[in-house]
Amino acid sequence: MSDVLRVSLIQTDIAWENKQYNLAECAAWLRGLAGRCDVAVFPEMFTTGFSMRAEELAEPTSGETITTVKSWAREYGMAIAGSFIARENGACFNRGFFIQPDGTEYYYDKRHLFRMGDEGRHFSPGQQRLVVKYKGWNIALQICYDLRFPVWNRNVNNEYDLLLFVANWPQSRAYAWRSLLVARAIENAAYVCGVNRVGEDNTAMSYRGDTLAVGMKGEILAEAEPFVPNVVAVELDLSKLRSFREKFPVWRDADTFSLDV
Asked: What is the mean pLDDT of the chain?
């Protein structure tokens, strides 16, 4: 098995609350990546935008969105990640997903709900982190506002190799987005990829994208052109990461702590 993971970070402009249109647009992006990608990543709430109409838009994991993602993963032979508005047991979640080509499915419910956007009034918070094993890699998935909370992101004993963030992060806070992605990579000795949207939504928020792939030393490996939909394709090397961790084992000196969830 190769140590190289081919990751495609898909920076889209999301049509407000229009699932069918967004699914069709995303399918077109994926068709162009078939055979050249191991993991494709879409932004947060990639079929609706960052809508608080959770009750009206939520669907189960057996619904249209995940059923479609599963068909894509199978047809194009790649894992696909992102988030959508989910419903389970009467509650709504901003739910991250990681779907493998064989149909294996993993989910992560956003832990930190964006207070300033009233997300906590419409969604329930998650309680568990997610680390997926795929092609010899350990991959963690988190969502947007989670980026601001380093304890929740702490990479204890190199639990993960790649940390993915999917987001609807406004242009007005672009500096924080870029800075925190770099910080999370450095402090956790891991690759970090952040996938953000572009365009405007119906809440008057503007998004410039700034989709990034960051190396374990904090170096920018690849980034998207701002303001326009495009794909960042990057190849990540696990052997380089392991070598760095052996030569510079800062993780061995990390503080121990327990997290009360």
From this structure: 97
The tens digit of pLDDT for each residue in 190-206 reads: 999 999 999 999 999 99
Distance CA 248, CA 182 (A): 18
Note if 159 is an active site residue. no
Type of residue at 236: L
Given the residues 17, 44, 59, 119, the one annotated as active site: 44
Residue of 26, 37, 144, 193 marked active site = 144
- At residue 86, the pLDDT reads 98
Report the distance separating Cα 92 and Cα 209, nearest Å: 26
- Structure-token pair, residue 96: 């991250």
From the list 4, 59, 9, the residue with the least C-alpha distance to 30 is 9
CA angle 45, 49, 53 (to 5 degrees): 95
CA nearest 139: which of 100, 179, 112, 111? 100
CA 52, 54, 58: angle at the middle one, nearest 5? 145
Q: What is the distance, to the nearest Å, from the Cα of residue 12 to the centroid of all Cα atoms in its chain?
A: 13
Tokens of 5: 């993971």
- Judged against a pLDDT cut of 70, whether residue 15 lies above it is answered with yes
Which among 113, 167, 120, 116 has a CA at the least distance from the CA of 144?
Answer: 167
144 catalytic per annotation: yes
With residue 120 as reference, give the H or E element that holds it. helix 119-122
